[in-house]
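Q: I have three molecules that I believe assemble together. Could you output structure tokens for the complex as a whole instead of separate predictions?
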Amino acid sequence: MRVAATIARRRSVIPGFGMTLGMSLLWLSLIVLIPLAALFLKTAELSFSQFVDIISSRRVLHALQLSFGLSLAAAAVNLVFGTLVVWALVRYRFPGRRVFDAIVDIPFALPTAVAGIALTNLYAESGWLGSLLVPFGIKVAFTPLGIFVALVFIGLPFVVRTVQPVLEDLEKELEEAAASLGATRWTIVRRVILPSITPALMTGFALALARAVGEYGSVIFIAGNLPNVSEIAPLLIVIKLQEFRYADATAIAAVMLLASFLLLFLINTLQRWSEARTGKRA
Amino acid sequence: MRRMRMGLAAGLMLVGAAQAADVNLLNVSYDPTRELYAAINKAFATKFKAETGKTIEIKQSHGGSGTQARSVIDGLQADVVTLALAYDIDAIAGRGLIAADWQKKLPNNAAPYTSTIVFLVRKGNPKGVRGWDDLVKPGIKVITPNPKTSGGARWNYLAAWGYALKKHGSEDKARDFVRDLYKNVPVLDTGARGSTVTFVQRNIGDVLLAWENEAYLAIDEFGKDKFEVVTPALSILAEPTIAIVDKVVDKKGTRPAAEAYLNFIYSPEGQGIAAQNHYRPRDAAIAKNHENSFAKVELFTIDDTFGGWQKAQALHFSDGGIFDKIYTQ
Amino acid sequence: MSDFDPRAATAGVATQPAQRRKVDVRADAPWVRRTIIGLTVGFLCLFVVLPLINVFAQAFSKGIAVYLAALQDAETLAAVRLTLIVAFASVLSNGFFGLMAAWAIAKFEFPGKNILITLIDLPFSVSPVIAGLVFVLLFGLQGLLGSWLAVHDIEIVFALPGIMLATIFVTFPFIVRELVPLMQEQGTEEEEAALSLGASGLRTFIRVTLPNVKWALLYGVLLCNARAMGEFGAVSVVSGHIRGETNTLPLHIETLYEGYQAAAAFAVASLLALLALVTLIAKSALETRTAKE
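A: Yes, here they are, computed for all three components at once.
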């Protein structure tokens, strides 16, 4: 009851609730909700069986599989290496540490098209890295491997930046207590540190995954775009659009959008779990 | 804040300055014609100024022919469309933006220049590509764009099919031939230019299936010491078509300028520019002048071999059509 | 206790100067340290530094004359203008409404707050291609509002408004996300104090709230701007790719790349890469600033 009174008091003291909420909802509706509703309206023009037919066609299924599969793999790599990176940045001092800390954000700030042409050029058979791999018979550009590399690039900052504040704030005393009780370093890592950062790790993973699934600009230059081999779902949407097949495009987009909603829901839940655990917004 | 406002004002003024021409046209074209229309637009602007005293600016948009048609249907305000094949313009006409009899309004079925499909190979022709049959040899990598988005890609596909049909006499053998050809294709770009970039700049593939004009342009750009053109003995007559977008020119009031522009492409000056850019001109005199630039090829047409674009598109390139089936095998 | 390495203890010296002789139990063994640092540096160099260097190397591969010519080309300049206008519009609108939304979310409790936050975050997880697609479905000639727009001669897709809308959609949450946690942490005491002293709501906002969040706001603006200038997928779908008119810088890069002008494409790309680097430097500076306060 005291809480309700406090809330009521707060609401009556600070003005502007109605206006700010109203304007925010208006802007949200105009820019985000109504356009997204248009997508579902268009999809609704299809009968359910038509929808299922489109989604279950071999090419669409393969594109969705490729997008989600490669994104999972890339997010997993970012999970592992992101953990190593954030550990090094937070726990160690080494020359150039601050520079590398800033470097982590480059995939976040660099336009996707720039990343796309740079990576393609690098990994093409005549590129700096591609030429090194040719003797091993490994082809990166224009293969799913190239898509994978691009997805690792753009997802890179998410795990690092999500875990960093949590790791920085980790209480020293916990570790020191565990050590004084005779725990080995590895046990401390496993039983004390990892559980504390796991919610943040999972959040970062989910963020990297969500970003990778929808990625277009950086992938489009390096992917082979061969149907049923190296064609990502966003490109398939664009192709269907270019073929005047709006229904197909919107159906695929609807599936991807639903997946995005689920991922977003998962991310927000994980973030709240993390906040509850550590009291810090991940 | 003040600096930002000033910057914005300056920016907007500069943008405004760009619209200073008396007449503005938008030419929505297919992928390889960038250099062609850069030259044509320049020449036409001079002529237009001389004849009418008004300045004209023609903006260009390029992309796969199918993509461009879709954009115009979706509202891209093109005054004229200069696309890779009649079917794409028919699609726009089907939505009421262009008069249904557009193809009769200009000479030669609205195709002011023609082209054909040839092969571009690396200098010295290391894989010994001489004709269509070499494209289905195992181990050869062929670069061609996506027929679902690119006009040139569809001409490539039909040229291959037509060749196999004439050689083997049966639709089934033609289908097998084309299927084997696409097995050798490692990457499908969305436009003819994209494929050329892949072959020429990224060094992917052994042979590029390309518009004749595109192949020769690549040699112009990158040098005779890097690439050579192999012209097959038999190929398809490719007829890129042009049209005025009636709905747009009537709304904007640019019909006279647009008509003058399209007619210019048929004029001797326009035809000369086309020939210089390796497009086969329709004008007999200009064609004679440039005889030696174009190889002699036995050409079959889409009408006599495939019964026209409507049939070909429906059979091969529609969803679930033959191209889709070839890929799932 | 036998696995303590005295050398590992000195790893903690920088952080614990008062305990010079004391062993740091939180330190890792040196081989672990070296491996992890090695992997970190290797991973970052391979995936981030090398592509970045490549951009500049390719940009200058044909010499500085070609580089400068590419940047001064009329179509490039038009693309720069368009990108600046679009980014400015995104920052302005998302900043204004971001402040409003942050005020409503941070200073009040109301049912459905979590749903609102989730909805605001939506554009984050939507593919940029889908962002472009929805505006075509809504405003394209064949779209839901298409015929109405055609009748009234309003161009949205394939013109500036469409590009702005798509970019605003994609950068929607950036500024709100930076403001909300900070404003929530700061609570409402200062605002209540000002109000009780007789200040109006607007005055309180301008004189009390804004100065408190200025660095977070600037940070959000920075991120919003970087994303707005670099957006490719969404704009690609709604732009008509009209050279010199509806090509933003990222689209112009693609156009150049396909026009056999790879060096020019990388030259323009290097512009955007420089912008990214400047953004990061500004971000670091802001973070130091915030840490100090």
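A: One point stands out. The mean pLDDT of chain A is 84.
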